[in-house]
UniProtKB/TrEMBL annotation, chains A, B:
Assembly information from the UniProt record: Homodimer.
Keyword Transport included in the entry's annotation: yes
Protein name (Swiss-Prot/TrEMBL): Phosphate-specific transport system accessory protein PhoU
Role, per record: Plays a role in the regulation of phosphate uptake.
Amino acid sequence: MIDKDVHSHHISQQFNAELDTVKTHMLEMGGLVEQQVRDAITALIEGDSQSAETVKVNDNHINSMEVSIDEECTRILARRQPAASDLRLVIAISKAVIDLERIGDEAGKIATQAIQLSESGESPRGYKEIRHIGNHVGFMVRDALDAFARFDVDMALAVAKEDKLVDEEYGTAVRSIITFMMEDPRTISQMMNVIWALRSLERVGDHARNIAEHVIYLVKGRDVRHFGIKEMTAEVNDK
Amino acid sequence: MIDKDVHSHHISQQFNAELDTVKTHMLEMGGLVEQQVRDAITALIEGDSQSAETVKVNDNHINSMEVSIDEECTRILARRQPAASDLRLVIAISKAVIDLERIGDEAGKIATQAIQLSESGESPRGYKEIRHIGNHVGFMVRDALDAFARFDVDMALAVAKEDKLVDEEYGTAVRSIITFMMEDPRTISQMMNVIWALRSLERVGDHARNIAEHVIYLVKGRDVRHFGIKEMTAEVNDK
């Protein structure tokens, strides 16, 4: 009987270590993805096509991290058959890596716009907006990952709230660029590059929000993906 | 001993029924999502804001289908602890519903563009392209779902190949609209509505490809998401 207890204690220690490892890998992937977004924005603003190329090359590494973390999750499901909060952790990680990979894709798309702009000449408008919204969504990604690391639902809720602001900032920025396009149509294609980059940043905000929602699912056991902010707040505050 | 066999046979029959049910629910969701895309395109082309509003309202139903199918998957993981191909089926379904939900979102975005166009007046360009690319990605979604229903990897591979064509058609369409914008900047905002709708359609193609990749994972046990078409073909043909 004692032997069996020691044995199962050992098993559960190993299991906990596996869960910690896969969570750490996901957070490492998150750190890289966050950096990719920042590097892509800098490359675009500075017209640095070489840095933009580096962002595109790095995306392959992020893709392979996604595949390997996903395999870790599947292995845990198959061998450990987790239940309750352990199962939710594995599910939340496997969903978060999908969002992280998509954020990486968006960084790659911003890098593509940076390369096109460095070839065709600067856009007359939109850099200020890219810097501003870029910073905003960069913080959201960082906070969503911190919330995941600490299982902090209040922080996760704050990230979800920020996404609404980003959507508004994005809408305002695009409208003002379109107005300028009509006034000065000669540089439409450069302004389109800026608009595509802004669109990518807005998508990064959406994915940060998704990650925040996975944290709430993980801690609270409730899928809040299609909740409004009001319902989500009620769920988080429901101790 | 016989009793136990009968019992486990019974359990496995129930389990198979649960797997069939969740797969059926996913395919039903897929059918609705496919219809949403077609309805959104028709609403945009015909300038029918009322149909566009219906598409937006229906999206709530699709969102709740996603949540409930996801719960079914989690319940199966927790209670049945599936292994091997059963586990892959549950994982593939839970990933496919994420893509289906995103396709539903894109249909909603196309509906938003349809409403804006019906208010601001027609775009002078782009309807032909929307119809053409819309048909193309509509067939891709249908074929991806059929491939999932029949576990048909050859059909899945064909869908993945189509996505490359859609990307090219999309690129050509957007470039030609941007050229026209420069010539006639007065209708830029209407043409931007068309460009956003085209972008959404291109994203629908990406998600159809993702679903096709889940089918290959499910049948072949290999994650082909970041493979090129050549590697993917080799994987599918490797009996």
